[in-house]
Amino acid sequence: MDAIGKAPVFPQWPQYDDEERTALIRALEQGQWWRMGGTEVESFEREFAEFHGAPHALAVTNGTHALELALQCLGAGPGSEVIVPAFTFISSSQAAQRLGAVAVPVDVDLETYNIDVAATAAAVTPRTRVIMPVHMAGLVADMDALAKLAADNGVALLQDAAHAQGARWQGKRIGEFGTIAAFSFQNGKLMTAGEGGALLLPDEEMFENAFLRHSCGRPRTDRHYMHKVSGSNLRLGEFAAAVLRAQLRRLDAQNAVRDERWALLSGLLAGIPGVVPQSGDPRAERKTHYMAMFRVPGLGEQARNDLVDRLVAAGLPAFATFRAIYRTDAFWDGARPAETVEQIAERCPHTEAISTDGIWLHHRTLLAEPEALHATVEIIAGAVTAA
Description:
Radius of gyration: 21 Å
Strand content: 5-15%
Number of helices: 12
């Protein structure tokens, strides 16, 4: 430990107790370990849908597959375009590209880090099939404006809600917007089984379509291999679902703690000269805080990376923010827009800034006691001064 502050104590992640142990034994002893014979996956789907106010949920293997499956159900494919934030994890764009669609990056808001509605509107073309907002760090994007934009242009709206389990916007839960929403349960997420994902689906027809496609196109009662549609095996196993049922039961309480702690942490961060925390939106009544995000404007990528290393060395679970998707090799491996990197960067100045001077802390930071947050800010202040 150097002189920039005493290492705070954070809870471990993932969190678990006897409820997960009991759930795993329950899944084991039922004697059927896949969804077609067991009960854990169906029970989780019912509970997850109810928690989010959705008619249906479908559990799948991971969040990336959830996005791919949703896009396939919405008709994305060769010749179509999917508008995505330029500042997001690469799965948002790769899900479209894996289907042969072109992912079209648009800029984000400099304060919330969510997709910019005006930039999205400017990117809509006759080939646009889907608009995919990402609820960055659990802050719901402007669903009112995005829903109107999608409806006015006759395109689908798909929520990438990988960060937003339990989030709310203007009194609505994620499942109450009438769109598909995709979730991730990867090891670092707000609830986890190591891997896993889910879709919320707004009606029976869409659920049945997604179910077929996630199970090799095969109806659940089929005994003669009558595969109805093109699909893959994206089925979640019973053990993962059992763990997720236990994780879901503690999610609401954890979200409340994170929201309370973010109010403290963001206020303290704002008091450090040169540090700007991610802002909120008064219409987002519950932010889930998958990440505690802030910027050091003008720092530059290398200096930012050095600062992250210094924070990690001091005991903080700190990370550099996502790289702009168009500045990864993966983005250019497959279907791609006609623009160059430089052309996309020119119309995405906010993404350029956030992706080079942004930092995030893992959400377990926000489950720590207040004294740990004060110690965290002391470390960050010392590191920023030394940067």
